């Protein structure tokens, strides 16, 4: 089955840089941007879920953002990238997101992940994806994935898992509008997780924000092998979404000057958030770093490194088209573009969205 055509979506961390705007501003600005994105021809709009991270991410409940966006839009897909399944009751999750699928007239894209912040797991007393609890975190995540889908597709649900039990049959309502269920995506970073996530029919989410572009082609090739191995290619082609900062301006220089300081702030916040606290996890990551390079939590990627390693898509419309085509050739089918990053002004983001709609997205649609 052929690789699906490239699609562009907006992606939100919901940062609050106090030098630029408030929490109130970011929520209302993002809703305006999603409406503008639909008008400009963006395929989707996605939100993360994070907790206890002032500055970096102020969206603990993406379902609320998506519900609000669903009432302001008609066609743009609305998704999570990602819902932190281990931190949320799976039945409540199934109910909430089925409701969003109904409110949006069947536009939900449901992305899930295991989580990264150790603080979040400490507060909710769930196994983190690091150290001695890593295996339990993965088991719990996969169990919850199975239960959410079961809630969406079956009546009289029972479930006898290691971490969650439904002993008396219950029917979860409402059911999503999309049948048999909304498309699921999963954050996928290794061959093992490809087997587990893609094997279940979930599409793939990855990113180049910290890891760069280098390994994308190999990852997408192995992902398509796994997809075919489980027979999913007979039903539909694998979609691979990639989270990456994205900004378009009239000229290359204008885009670079406009974005550089905001990208620096974003990367600083991101590295603070992702820095491993678990000693074993820290040692494991240090062992994988090439000689002569410092870990990102000690030395965040510079602007020059972000450009040279293709951690960002930035420039004029022609620049953005060329860079997006590179991602497409590497097997990516969906760019989740982080345009509202690091305190960049709302009006600049709106102009960038409009420019993408006029001069980039129509060109991509031509193939």
Shape: globular
User: What count of domains describes the coordinates?
Assistant: 1
Helix content: 40-55%
Find the CATH superfamily. Luciferase-like domain
Radius of gyration: 20 Å
Strand content: 15-25%
CATH class division = Alpha Beta
Ranges where pLDDT stays below 50 over 5 or more residues in a row are: none
* Helical segment count: 13
Helix-strand pattern = EHEHEHEHHEEEHEHEHHHEHEHH
Report how far the terminal alpha carbons are from each other: 17 Å
Largest sheet data: 8 strands, parallel, barrel
Spatial arrangement of strands, main beta sheet: 1-2-3-4-7-8-9-11
- Look up the CATH topology: TIM Barrel
Task: Determine the mean pLDDT.
Answer: 95
Q: How many strands in all?
A: 11
CATH architecture: Alpha-Beta Barrel
Helical/strand content category: alpha/beta
Concise synopsis of the structure shown:
The protein is α/β, with parallel strands linked by helices and 367 residues long. The chain is built from 13 helices and 11 strands.
Helix-strand layout with pairing:
Elements: E1 7-12, H1 23-40, E2 44-47, H2 62-70, E3 77-84, H3 90-103, E4 108-113, H4 118-124, H5 134-153, E5 157-160, E6 165-170, E7 183-187, H6 191-197, E8 203-207, H7 216-229, E9 240-248, H8 252-274, H9 279-287, H10 303-308, E10 313-315, H11 317-329, E11 334-338, H12 346-359, H13 361-365
Parallel strand pairs: 1-2, 1-11, 2-3, 3-4, 4-7, 7-8, 8-9, 9-10, 9-11
Antiparallel strand pairs: 5-6
């Amino acid at each position: 089955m052929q690789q699906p055509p490239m699609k562009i979506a907006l992606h939100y961390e919901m940062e609050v840089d106090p030098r630029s705007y408030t929490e109130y501003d970011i929520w209302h600005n993002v809703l305006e941007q999603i409406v503008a994105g639909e008008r400009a021809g963006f395929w989707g709009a996605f939100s993360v879920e994070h907790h206890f991270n002032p500055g970096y991410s102020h969206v603990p409940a993406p379902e609320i953002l998506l519900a609000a966006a669903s009432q302001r839009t008609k066609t743009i897909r609305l998704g999570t990238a990602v819902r932190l399944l281990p931190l949320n009751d799976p039945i409540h999750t199934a109910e909430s997101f089925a409701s969003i699928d109904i409110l949006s007239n069947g536009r939900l894209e449901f992305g899930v992940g295991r989580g990264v912040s150790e603080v979040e797991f400490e507060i909710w007393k769930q196994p983190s994806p690091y150290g001695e609890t890593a295996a339990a975190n993965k088991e719990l995540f996969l169990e919850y994935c199975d239960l959410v889908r079961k809630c969406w597709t079956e009546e009289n649900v029972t479930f006898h898992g290691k971490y969650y039990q439904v002993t008396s049959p219950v029917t979860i309502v409402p059911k999503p509008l999309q049948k048999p269920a909304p498309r699921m995506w999963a954050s996928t970073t290794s061959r093992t997780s490809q087997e587990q996530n893609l094997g279940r029919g979930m599409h793939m989410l990855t990113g180049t924000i910290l890891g760069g572009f280098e390994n994308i082609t190999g990852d997408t090739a192995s992902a398509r092998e796994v997809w075919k191995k489980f027979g999913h290619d007979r039903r539909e082609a694998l979609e691979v979404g990639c989270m990456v900062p994205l900004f378009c301006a009239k000229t290359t220089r204008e885009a670079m000057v406009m974005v550089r300081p905001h990208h620096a702030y974003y990367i600083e916040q991101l590295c603070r958030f992702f820095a491993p606290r678990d000693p074993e996890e820290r040692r494991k990551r240090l062992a994988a770093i090439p000689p002569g390079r410092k870990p990102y939590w000690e030395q965040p990627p510079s602007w020059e490194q972000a450009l040279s390693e293709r951690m960002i898509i930035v420039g004029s419309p022609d620049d953005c088209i060329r860079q997006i085509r590179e991602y497409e050739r590497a097997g990516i089918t969906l760019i989740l573009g982080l345009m509202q990053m690091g305190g960049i002004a709302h009006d600049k983001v709106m102009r960038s969205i409009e420019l993408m709609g006029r001069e980039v997205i129509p060109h991509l649609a031509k193939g």
